[in-house]
Amino acid sequence: MTTYDPPMPTTTVTAPAKLTVSLRVTGVRADGFHLIDAEMVTLDLADELEFSDGDGLEVIGASGLPVPSDDDNLVRKALRLVGRTAHVRLTKRIPAGAGLGGGSADAAAVLRWAGVDDGSLAVQLGADVPFCVRGGRARVTGIGEVLEPLDHVDRTFTLVTPPFGCSTPAVYRAWDGLGGPTGSGANDLEAAALVVEPRLAEWRDRLARDTGATPVLAGSGSTWFVEGEFPAAGLVVRTVAPGDGQGFAV
Q1: How is the chain split among helix, strand and coil, in percent rounded to 5?
Q2: Is 169 helix (H, G, I), strand (E, B) or coil?
Q3: What is the C-alpha to C-alpha distance for residues 190 and 196, in angstroms, rounded to an integer?
Q4: Going by fewer Cβ within 10 Å, which terminus of the chain is more open, N or C?
């Protein structure tokens, strides 16, 4: 008797970016992972993943650091982690290496598609993935796996992303090498990111000049942001709450 497996229905999942509004590095675990105390929010800037029958990854529109389509991509790693197979067409709108959690957002979208909401599993893919699975606004501690939901606040930010990215591991290594500095602003990693990529300074100064505000580095960089709407200065984005059509529920 021949069995027939119907093709997988095509499903599209949104993968919103996250913005780390504030970031303190509070310590380093014995295994080398850094402990953080951060506020993260979801933005209306998003990648899109289309899941269909098959096996493979197609990446469209990537910018910033290179985005591989092989097994090193977090989409492929997330599929393996949950034991699923699919052909994924990934449309990138979040620049890679920009500090906006693009890869983590994509991995989180896979977990939501698979119906998985397990922080201990999500953090195996990256420190930002547990937040990206849940979305909204939260205080994030531990290495990223401890989430304390916070009330949604409507906020607008202006982002400037240079035409280059920053490697998160390299920035944390630089932070260690500097002796673990505490940032004078909202992000402890700013000094380390400027060591890794000195060109960040000119983009920070440009945004400051165009807005009259003091820019903050997004995560480990390379994006700088200020609160408020300055369309002539950069990309204007807004915060998103779970339930705003971004598909956070699993």
Answers
A1: 25, 30, 45
A2: helix
A3: 10
A4: N
Tokens in use for 183?
């940032």
Q: How far apart are CA 47 and CA 96, in angstroms?
A: 11
77 catalytic? Reply is no
> pTM of the prediction?
0.90
The one catalytic residue in 18, 47, 92, 106 is 18
Closest CA to 204 of 216, 219, 192, 191: 216
Q: Is residue 66 packed enough to be buried (19+ CB in 10 Å), middle (13-18) or exposed (0-12)?
A: exposed
Catalytic hit among 47, 92, 106, 128: 128
If phi over 0 gives left and psi between -120 and 50 gives alpha, with beta otherwise, what is residue 77? alpha
Inter-CA distances, 35 with 23, 32, 63, 145, 219, Å:
10, 9, 29, 10, 13
- Domains of the chain by start residue, with CATH: 11-152 (3.30.230.10), 156-236 (3.30.70.890)
187-243: per-residue pLDDT in tens? 999 999 999 999 999 999 999 999 999 999 999 999 999 999 999 999 999 999 876
Q: For this structure, is 47 an active site residue?
A: no
